[in-house]
Amino acid sequence: MTAGFPETFRGQAAALYFEAFSGKIGGVLGRDGRGERFIASVIDPAFAISAVSGDGATLLGIAGFKTKDGAMVGGGLAEMAAVYGWFGAVWRGLLLSALERDLADGQLLMDGIAVAPQARGLGIGSALLDAVCQHARKCGVAELRLDVIDTNPRAKALYERKGFTAGATGSTGVLRHIFGFSSATTMVRAVA
């Protein structure tokens, strides 16, 4: 596991992230290449941990986190407008704000974990999750927090195996048709 990712992997990181979350954000960001382009423009390696192939040529997985200083995938209206124009940026920003999660004191917030299809089942996701927990420990926070959507039971099972416990579940209401899921459960794990 490596802190961040080399700039040469920016495109791979954006593609991997977008593929993993396209069911959730693809309807808003677009599956016509613009979603990946937007992610590539805002993805920040300072808030990521990556797994790279032994030959250093392929990004096998990436895990992001959010702190008070930023997040792996952020960006604002100006970055969105560069890809979608101002009108497209405003309505996309409004919809995506429904998914925004506030950072609580004493917590590191996961900002997504994605594993390349050819690397699934090899323990990459578990190793990335362990690496984020280690990073959280180094940051001096007490808990690692994430949200898992109802349509991803495999991820929820991984998180439970890794010591996360389920908390509150929130509904997306009528936005379920846009985001492709009905609810998300907050899960936390002590890291100290």
Task: Describe the secondary structure blueprint for this structure.
Layout: E1 2-3, H1 10-29, H2 34-42, E2 48-52, E3 59-67, E4 70-71, H3 77-97, E5 107-115, H4 124-139, E6 143-149, H5 153-161, E7 165-171, H6 176-179, E8 183-190
Parallel strand pairs: 5-6
Antiparallel strand pairs: 1-2, 2-3, 3-4, 3-5, 6-8, 7-8
Helix pairs in contact: 1-2, 2-3
CATH class annotation: Alpha Beta
Average pLDDT rating: 92
CATH evolutionary superfamily? Gcn5-related N-acetyltransferase (GNAT)
Q: Return the domain count.
A: 1
- The best one-word shape is globular
Helix content: 40-55%
Low-confidence stretches: none
Write down the oligomeric state.
single chain
If you compute it from the alpha carbons, what radius of gyration comes out, rounded to the nearest whole angstrom?
16 Å
Distance between the termini: 20 Å
Order of helix and strand elements from N to C terminus: EHHEEEHEHEHEHE
> What is the β-strand count?
8
Structural class: alpha+beta
User: How many alpha or pi helices?
Assistant: 6
CATH fold naming: Aminopeptidase
Largest sheet: 8 strands, mixed
Strand content: 25-35%
CATH architecture verdict? 3-Layer(aba) Sandwich
Structure description:
The protein has helices at 10-29, 34-42, 77-97, 124-139, 153-161, 176-179, and strands at residues 2-3, 48-52, 59-67, 70-71, 107-115, 143-149, 165-171, 183-190. The radius of gyration is 16 Å and the shape is globular. It is α+β, with helices and mostly antiparallel strands. It has one domain (2-141): Gcn5-related N-acetyltransferase (GNAT) (Aminopeptidase, 3-Layer(aba) Sandwich). Helix content is 41%, strand content 26%. Strands 1, 2, 3, 4, 5, 6, 7 and 8 form an 8-stranded mixed beta sheet that branches. It is built from 6 helices and 8 strands.
